[in-house]
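Dear support,

I submitted the protein below through the web form. The confirmation email said the job was done, but the results page showed an empty box. After a refresh the structure appeared. I'm attaching both so you can tell me whether what I see now is the final result or a partial one.
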Amino acid sequence: MTNTAKGTFDVELTPGQTELDGAVSRFDFIKTFHGEITGRARGLMLAGGDRNAGAAGYVAIEVVEGVVNDRRGSFALQQLGTMSSGSQTLRYEVVPGSGKDELAGICGTFELTIEDGAHHYELAYEL
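What the results page shows now:
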């Protein structure tokens, strides 16, 4: 049976070092979750391309620690995002085997939408 958790999150993005002769940028980030997920995530992102020209991509891993629908624990999310020719794609998945404590065995997907500058999420998951 698939469960869902919905809400919003705030994100703080901190630029790190630029690698590979300026072709790849590193960012550290922290998210604070509100709603049916409460807690924080810490993550690392690597990005390349030319975001200002609308042609770029990134990968990221983050670890979410907190409570999901009354279950306390942690799990990791894997992200893949690309933008090209005016379109964007974003894919989030729960990293298999990453669930701990009451979230052990979690699997699923994470959807992100941005409305009026606010980040909204929907986690569809199974335990």
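Response: this is the final, complete result; the empty box was a page-load delay. The domain at 3-126 is CATH 2.40.350.10 (AOC barrel-like).
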